[in-house]
Design brief:
heterodimer, A: 507 residues, alpha/beta, Rossmann fold, 17 helices, 25 strands, B: 76 residues, mainly alpha, 4 helices
């Protein structure tokens, strides 16, 4: 029975101290180094009076950044990953929400930190790892730790334009890693190829899965996801056998027919998340790797990461969809209709999650937390929270859960979760823009932005790039003379959606 | 070349594609753009870009990309 994620690392460092735990093309860090450096960081932070609070880790995506995460946790605090790839404006919003007292930087990020108006303390990674670890102090910190204490905060898109910081606890992460590793059969032989940035929850399974099993994680350079042939060559070069990627990263490889030329020969476990895998592309993968294990994963950041899985066990025709299957062990999925009742089998309901996997909600935002982390409406006898995902699902005739759609304007685009409202809120902030509306054309996977204002689309794009992460940038930006309105005077989204579809068909 | 420039401009109205030589190096194009471009080039120019040509050097500038399209259409 684990109570603290550091126990994973401590158990593994005794067994395989000199094995490389985390690596990229240039550098790697062994379990011993992770252990030593993170204990040094923990000792240092605590002695500086940093305890039980968010510590920003503002470093590039590299192996030692992960050691910094562990270090923050050793000090009894929780880490908040930030990256230079995140746009300036967004980092400012995060700093506002977080009001951190301490930031850990590397030499490269130190200079850019100055731009964000942050005035707290800055620690340089390479300096603080020289601290001598204080065994008595670290064990005292551990004695006072509770498994509901936070491990991390990761930020996700918020419809009001302000990102939401999701607080994950030891207990939730342990529950997640224990049950996911059963499904995907992680072991000491697992070599992960990690696709996600370190500032998303998606990397938790690789970071803590590696720590638990003494496995290995390669951080794959982001740029390779544009060049599919090189990407597969990378997988082969580093003998990567397990991937948990967003669907577009996989379809990029199959749609360019890369698998005809080179096959990722070591891959035996292919898990995919974030959106529906088009069956045509999926079947190309399955044909290329007939002996591999394919697993569809589903889950919101609010429930730590993944809460449902489906191990592909039959053939699918192009008009079928892959189920999201069944919940991980120790998690329950409840479908609820508009009246908060369980719909008849086969009918639509909102996917709601019950279990230890629930995070604590949104940092410094009780109000938005209470909107979605709510009392289980099926239980009026004692307090019990469920998380309302806003996703609609149904149970198929085999008893498997199927994802159907969203209730609101949240979309999945290139594997990222995006609130169209956040894009609109940012466009509406631009001087010279009078109104704006974003729609998503699922068929072409394009975000279209329509606005009324004096600025050219080029100007709007240039301003938005300062504010939004790259993946949230609209793919179509068009100025309109006047915004189409419904009879109620609201922006006519349905019309704009149809307009976008027609535009696509004309191309 | 004009068709290609129009295509690129559609993806990033704020970028000067006639002069920019670092579309990949400076992370101006992302994987979504590459997918869109390869599909659009296929329909507009009737040229299929094979996987081995989807490499940084061919996408770093409009000029390089156009040279690739010309080379591939001559091979057909």
């Amino acid at each position: 029975m684990y109570r603290n994620i550091l126990e994973y690392l401590e158990q593994t460092v005794r067994r395989v101290p000199d094995k490389a735990a985390y690596a990229d093309e240039r550098t790697s860090i062994t379990f011993r180094e992770v252990y030593d450096q993170s204990r040094a960081i923990g000792t240092y932070l605590y002695k500086q009076g940093i305890y039980k609070q968010p510590v920003v880790v503002f470093m590039k995506r590299q192996p030692k950044t992960i050691a910094a995460f562990f270090g923050v946790v050793y000090g009894g605090s929780f880490y908040v990953p930030i990256d230079e790839e995140m746009p300036h404006f967004r980092v400012e919003l995060i700093f506002n929400n977080l009001d951190p007292r301490a930031v850990i930087c590397d030499q490269d990020s130190l200079d850019s930190l100055a731009q964000y108006g942050y005035r707290g303390i800055v620690y340089l990674y390479d300096d603080i790892i020289k601290t001598e670890a204080d065994d008595a102090l670290l064990s005292d910190i551990r004695d006072r730790a509770i498994d509901t204490d936070p491990v991390y905060i990761v930020y996700t898109s918020g419809s009001t334009g302000i990102p939401k910081g999701i607080v994950g606890s030891h207990r939730a992460v342990i529950d997640y890693i224990e049950s996911l590793s059963e499904v995907l059969e992680f072991s000491e032989d697992t070599i992960f190829g990690s696709q996600s940035p370190l500032y998303f929850d998606a990397c938790l399974r690789e970071i803590f899965g590696t720590a638990k099993f003494g496995a290995q994680t390669y951080l794959i350079p982001r740029s390779l996801f544009m060049f599919p042939l090189k990407l597969v060559e990378f997988l082969n070069e580093y003998k990567i056998n397990t991937i948990c990627w967003v669907v577009p990263a996989l379809t990029m490889i199959s749609s360019f027919k890369v698998l005809d030329k080179v096959v990722p020969q070591y891959l035996h476990t292919i898990a995919f998340v974030s959106e529906v895998f088009p069956i045509k592309q999926f079947n190309i993968w399955r044909k290329a790797l007939p002996n591999a294990r394919f697993v569809n994963l589903y889950g919101p950041t609010e429930a730590t990461g993944i809460c449902c899985y489906y191990k592909v066990d039959r053939d699918f025709a192009e008009n079928e969809v892959l189920p999201i299957g069944r919940p991980l062990r120790n998690t329950e999925i409840i479908l609820l209709d508009e009246n908060n009742r369980i719909p008849p089998r086969g009918e639509l309901g909102e996917i709601c999650i019950r279990g230890t996997c629930l995070t604590h909600g949104y940092y410094n935002d009780m109000e938005r937390t209470r909107e979605v982390f709510v009392q289980n409406p099926l239980n009026d006898k004692y307090p019990e929270l469920i998380y309302r995902t806003g996703d609609l699902g149904r149970i198929n005739e085999r008893g498997e859960l199927i994802f159907v759609s969203r209730k609101d304007f949240q979309i999945k685009h290139m594997g990222h979760r995006i609130e169209l409202g956040e894009i609109e809120a940012n466009v509406n902030l631009i001087e010279g823009v009078h109104s704006a509306c974003c729609v998503y054309d699922r068929e072409s996977a394009m975000i279209a932005l329509y606005y009324v204002g004096e600025l050219s689309p080029g100007d709007v794009a240039a301003i938005l790039k300062q504010k939004l992460p790259r993946y949230m940038m609209p793919n179509i930006i068009e100025a309109l003379d006047r915004m189409p309105l419904t009879t109620n005077g609201k922006i006519d989204r349905a019309y704009l959606k149809e307009y976008t579809e027609n535009k696509r068909k004309r191309r | 070349m004009d068709t290609l420039l129009r295509m690129l401009k559609g993806l990033h109205p704020d970028v000067d594609f006639e002069t920019c030589e670092t579309l990949i190096d400076d992370k101006i194009l992302d994987s979504f753009d590459i997918i869109t471009l390869v599909a659009d080039i296929n329909s507009e120019f009737d040229v299929t870009i094979p996987a081995e040509e989807i490499i940084p050097e061919n996408f770093n500038s409009a000029r390089a990309l156009y040279a690739l399209i010309e080379r591939l259409s001559n091979e057909d």
